[in-house]
Amino acid sequence: MADRSGPETLRMRLRFKRGAQLVLGPGRMDLLALIDELGSISAAARRMGMSYRRAWLLVDETNRHFAGPLVESATGGQKGGGAHLTDTGREVLALYRDMEDRASAAVEPDLERLRRLLAADGDGDGAGNGDADEA
User: Fold this and answer.
1) Do 53 and 11 contact (CB within 8 A), yes or no?
2) Nearest one of 73, 10, 7, 78 to 45, comparing CA atoms
3) Cα–Cα distance for residue pair 128/126, rounded to 1 Å
4) pLDDT digit string (tens) for 8-27?
């Protein structure tokens, strides 16, 4: 999974909600991409610095939003366990990344204007210091 931005990069992040419930967002998509790359929910969770339980709950919750699962997993055994994206999972991830790229390109001129208005060190007088929708 490629790093999509550096720490100093101002960027837009897409989130899709159904009512109050988050269906897709950057963290979930990063998790899916890592599961696809590593073939394991636990390895993807470790790479993201989250617990296996948290990752499994995110996968389960995300799966329930779709007609078919995005991730399928198998428990250990002779061939070992693991997880993989289904065809639907790969399609959703590709669609999300494509929408993310197209949306970023569309707002780039405005982002550039916004960058020029931001405090140089990121410690301006603004009151907000977190992203309440990041989960």
Assistant:
1) no
2) 73
3) 6
4) 677 889 999 999 999 999 99
